[in-house]
Please model this.
Amino acid sequence: MGRELRHTVCPYDCPDSCGITAETDGKRILSFGPRADHPYTRGFLCKRGQEWPARLQGPARLASPLLRDGSGWKAIGWDEAVRRAVEGISNALSRHGHRSLLYYSYAGNILKGNEAQELFPALLGGGTVAKGSLCGAEGLSGLAATDPSGRRPRPESVLESRGVLLWGRNPAVTNLHFMPFLAGARKRGAVVGTVEVRTTPTTAFSDRAWIIRPGSDLALALYLCGRAIRLNGIPEGAENGEAFSALAFAPDRCRVLEETGLDGKGLEELESFVLETRPLSIWMGWGPQRARTGASLASVLDSLGMLTRNRGIPGGGVAFNQEIEGLLPEEVLNVPTSCPRYIPRNGLGKALLEADPPVEAALIVRGNPVSQCGDAGSTRRFLEDCPFSVCLDYRMSLTARCCSLVLPVSLPMERGGDFVSSYWHDIVQETSALAAPPPGVRHELDILAEIAKGLGLPDRFHPAFEAIGRHIRSLEWLEPLAPGMWRAHPRPEPEKPFRFPVSLDAPAVPEASLRLVTVHAKDYTNGQDLRQALPPETPPEAFFSLADAERLGLSDGQPVALVNRRGKLTVKVRLDPGTAPGTVVAEQAAEGLNVLVSPETTPRGHSCINETWVDVQV
Ligand SMILES: Nc1nc2c(c(=O)[nH]1)N[C@H]1C(S)=C(S)[C@@H](COP(=O)(O)OP(=O)(O)OC[C@H]3O[C@@H](n4cnc5c(=O)[nH]c(N)nc54)[C@H](O)[C@@H]3O)O[C@H]1N2
Ligand SMILES: Nc1nc2c(c(=O)[nH]1)N[C@H]1C(S)=C(S)[C@@H](COP(=O)(O)OP(=O)(O)OC[C@H]3O[C@@H](n4cnc5c(=O)[nH]c(N)nc54)[C@H](O)[C@@H]3O)O[C@H]1N2
Ligand code: SF4
Ligand SMILES: [Mo]
Model:
C-alpha cells in the first residue's frame, strides 16, 4: 500500500477527544497532526497526543506475555500464556464459583467498543466486579437530581457569556481546547473567574481567582444561593424552594469567611461577580466532587445557576461532565443470567481481602487500581497473594507489576473500527488503524475471546463489538459532518421542573492535620506516567502553603514523609504561596500515593479521593 490519509481520535480519557489526521503506509505512521475540520479541537494536539507515534514504538511498550517467576519476569509464548490464564481462572471457578473471579476494567481509553469486553464476567455468571466512579458520576448524580432534563451549556456558548466561573476546574491543564473558547469569550468582554484551592495555570489565565480551603465549597455555594434568594426570590415553577431557602440561609458570612479562608473583600467580589454578571456560565470540575459532598455541591451550584436566572439562557447555565447518552445498544450487552457480586471501586482492596467466597483469580483490562483507587496498598497486597492474576496492558503499570501474568495488547491506533465520543463536546468520531501492532502483542478482544473459549464460553465479544458499531452508525440523531465524524443532537426529553435539594450530605471528619489534594498532571493521563518504567530518581513533589511550612519547619526541597493510618510516602517539599493553608497538593499517580488515599465512598458509592488527610513526619 502507498501513502494513505486517515482520520482517527485520541483515545485518552480526556474531555477533548481530539480529531487526528495522519498519513500511513499501513505499517507505520508517516505524518500525524490535528484534524483540521474538527469543530472543537482543530489547531493543535497537546503534548500527550503528539507523543502517540513515539509511544507506539516506545521503550515502555510490552512486547510479549510475561510470567512472574520467583522474583523476576519471564517472557513466554502466547499458547502458554492463554493456557495459564484458562487454568488460573478455571481453578478459582471450580473451587468457589463465578464470584471467585475479579473482572476489573476502567478508563485506560474511552473507546465505545470496550463495552463488549464486559461480557466476559457476565457470561461466566457475573463474577466479582467493581461498582462506583473514581471520576465524575458523583457530580453528575447531583445535576440529575436538580435538573434532569435541563439543557447544559455547550463549550462555544461561553462566547455569549458575560461571565464564566470555573469551579475547581483546571482546563489549562486538563481540557486544553477549552482555552481558546475562554480566550474568545474574554475578547468579547466576558470576565473569567476561578474558585480553586491553589494557584494553577487556569487561575493564572483567569481575570479573578478565589483560593479557598478544600471542602469549603458547599458552605460558600450555599451562601451565594442565599444572597441570590434575597436579591431575586425563588423562581416560579421550581420545586422545594422554601425548604432550600432554609439550607441556603444557614451559613452566615462569618462562617463562610472562616471556612473558606477568604477575606471580606474577596467574598464581596465573588458575590457581586456571581449576582451581577448575566449571562453567567458555571463550569464545575472533577476535583471538588471527589468527596462525600460531591453530589450536593453539584446540586447547589446548579441551584445557583437557577437562582441567578442563568438556567437555559444563551451564555448561561451550569455545566460539568457531559456524556452523550444512547450510543450503546443495551440489548447486545445484556446477559439476563448474570448476577455479579459488586464491590466498591474506591474501596476495592479491603473488599477483595475480605470477600467471602474468596476471590482467587483476577482479570484486569484497561484498569490500574494499584495506582488509581483509594487504599491502594490493600489492592496490592490482595494481588500479590491472589493465586492467579492477569493484567492486559500495553506497558508495565503499577497494577501489572503485582499480577502473576501480563499480556501485551495492541493500542487503539493499531486497531480502528471503534468510536469515541466526548465528555465535553458533542462530536462522535470513528477510529482507524494507523500502524501495524508490534509482533508479539495482540488485540485484547481476541485475547479475551480465546481465554473465554478455553473456559467453554461462546465468542459473543466480536459480534457485540460489531453490533456497537452498527448501532452507532444507524443513529439518526447523529448528523454526519465529515468522514468518520458526527455531531450528536440532543433528543427531546419531557420537560421536568427544577428541583432544589432539600437535604445535603455531610463531609468527612478530618483524620489528620493536612488535607491531601491529588490533581491531574499536565504531561500524562491518569495513571499512565510512562516514566514509571524507569526507577524513580527523586521522590514526587508535594506542595505546601508558606504558613504550614513555617509551622512545620519545612524548607523547599527537603524530603519528608506524608503519613496516615494507611501508610507512608516520602515526598520532596515544595513551598507554594498559591496553596491554601491546611492543604498539601500532589500530582496523581506518583508511585505509592494512593496508598494514602481514602478508600471511602459517598452515599451513592463514588470515590472520596479528595477527602484524605495526612500528617508530616520530618
Ligand atoms: N493533562 C491531563 N488532562 C486530563 C487528565 C490527566 O490526567 N492529565 N485526566 C482527565 C480526567 S480522567 C479527568 S476526570 C479530568 C479532571 O479535570 P479537572 O477537574 O480539571 O482536574 P482535577 O485535577 O481533577 O481537579 C481540578 C481542580 O480541582 C481542585 N480542587 C480539589 N479539591 C477541591 C475543592 O475541594 N474545592 C475546589 N474548589 N477545588 C478543588 C484542584 O486543585 C484542581 O486544580 O481531566 C482530564 N484531563
Ligand atoms: N489520587 C487520585 N486518584 C485518582 C484520581 C485523582 O485525581 N487522584 N483521578 C481518578 C480519575 S478522574 C480517573 S478517570 C481514574 C482513572 O483510572 P484508570 O482508568 O484505572 O487509570 P489509567 O492508569 O490511566 O488507566 C488504566 C490502565 O489502562 C491501560 N491502558 C491504556 N490503554 C489501554 C488499552 O487500549 N488496552 C488496555 N488493555 N489497557 C490500556 C493503561 O496503561 C493503564 O495501566 O483515576 C482516579 N484516581
Ligand atoms: S490527550 Fe486530550 S488534549 Fe491531548 S491530544 Fe488527546 S484528546 Fe487532545
Ligand atoms: Mo476522570
Observations:
- The pocket of MGD (ligand 1) is lined by residues 13-15, 135, 167-170, 173-174, 195-198, 200, 214-215, 217, 285-288, 517, 519-522, 525-526, 610 (CB under 6 Å).
- The radius of gyration is 24 Å.
- The mean pLDDT is 97.
- The first helix runs from residue 47 to 50.
